[in-house]
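Q: What would this complex look like in 3D?
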Amino acid sequence: MTVADVSPASEGGAAARARGAGRRRAAGRVRLSRAVLVVPAVLAVALVVLPLLGLLAGTEWRGLPGRLADPSVRPAVRLSVVTTLVTVAVCWAFGTPLAWLLSRAEGRTATWLRAVLTVPVVLPPVVGGVALLLAYGRRGLVGQPLVDAFGLRIPFTPFAVVLAQVFVSLPFYVLAVEGAMRGIDRRLLEVSATLGARPLRVLTRVALPLAAAGIASGTALAWARALGEFGATITFAGNFAGETQTTSLLVYVALQDDPQTAVALSLVMLVVAVAVLGLLRGRWLR
Amino acid sequence: MTLDAQVRLTRGTLELDLPLRAADGEVLAVLGPNGAGKTTALHALAGLVRLGAGHVRVDGETWAGDGVHLDPSLRRVGMLSADHLLFPHLTARGNVAFGPRSRGASRAAAAARADAELEALGVLDLARRRPAQLSHGQAQRVALGRALATDPRLLLLDEPLSALDPGLRPQVRATLAARLREFRGSAVLVTHDPLDALTLADHLVFVETGRIVQEGSPTDVVARPRNPYVAQVVGLNLYPGTADDGTTVSTPLGAVVTGGHDHRGPSWVAFAPSAVALYPDAPHGSTRNAWAARVASVELVGQSARVRLVTGGAGPAVLAEVTAGSVATLRLQPGQELWAGVKATEVSAYPR
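A: Here is my prediction, written as structure tokens for the whole assembly.
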């Protein structure tokens, strides 16, 4: 009110001065209140950016190619590439239909399914590893029948690496894609049905193209989660070089006796992650 | 009789119970206020909504009822809504070809069919455009082509013109009328625009709160409304009453002298707003019907004005249409007291 007041020319100078001082005090309060918001925001940025700067600062750039040529690096990177790609493929093949059905479903079953799918998102990965072990282990729910029937042992194999990654990343994918599919105008799907499209065609020709952005970001999320998977993998698949040692596990191991290799690998993963984000950003992410 | 349906279902508080029938090449218009259940009935015909009871039969084939519920993709329907609902990721041609492709046509055959439809609607030059690059009127034409490209047995039109600019409507209405004349199946048109219904339909059905309140041919309905809502839509003053003798009917307006009628007992009385004349004082002479009235509102449309009147305190309302000149002469304003008169020859009465 005081700030907005316009003083008529007839008023005395003293009153105008008093009003000026009041106005300055009010402006000061606005600045203070703004600072109360800005300071924590800057701190939040620092908490995220400082470690990334630390990684860049701590890298010995000269020796980088040599470090990456270390004999332990290649198998780990290859394993990570293969397993994360398989995980993404599993998400697409199984997660997409699930997301589609969930997005169309109403009622209690769907609500429960959604809740169950959220569990791996909030579960500590180590606990996930224990759960996987108890399901697929030698005495496990699924593991024992498999051993008895085929002599098939899952834990501590590359297959186990994939199972661990799928366990943690599939829910991310399904929830992201389901959200995108839920956002599609329902009437477009109804129209496609009246045009004679069977459910599968409605999905592939209408829903998938319209949910492309959600599928892309869901894939990126799931892939990043799989690449960074550590706790469930080391618990359920172990850490055998050339067999189940993914890049993430190698970074941790190398940090003990060959820190610069760990730093070099970390840098590569950072670059790859940023590159994926950048690729998606232009077209599909805001 | 190609479309033979009895749509019965409950949605929230709405209980729908509509018999809907249309022969080959016939357009059935369903009119009604918002919330009357028109769109729901259309969705039930398309199979997007399940019937509670009743049936939908087309060409003798049962689509719904008797324990049957055919999936929408198996019903031969075409649907057109107020919003064009074109697939945003496909071109105009891709949109129209979608139906034929879904029904098993080869890519080339579907594209050829799409081009034929676009050609017939005068939008072939837009075939490669996406919906976002089309104007509303163009998009609606493409959507009509898409609905027709599957050779539907039943065409469902849900307020097809209501989302268009008023200036565009006549053009698109003409296109729609031309295509409907060639269309050999049955069509159901849901609308609340009487002009759509009168120009496009062969048979009208008026629906209120899920029930039919009147049906008939456009000329019949326009001449003899039998329901206040219908009268409002076709723009007539309508009052229920009782025919006492061959020339008068007692109505809430009082005894109304008509141009002569044969029936006795329950009766409707109707006259056009343009038949109502306004006088500053009680009229005499050839005007047999006159009521003291108060002006409720005046609305000028071009050279004529629609004047809403309330008779006898808070009695029944009368709608009058007078020239802009009379508005000026009488200096019409809300609240003004005057007299409304109608000649007996302008009043028609028919059994209720």
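A: To summarize the key features: Chain A touches chain B at residues 185, 187-188, 190-199, 201, 205-206, 209-210 (CB under 8 Å). The two ends of chain A are 40 Å apart (CA to CA).
Q: Very helpful, thank you.
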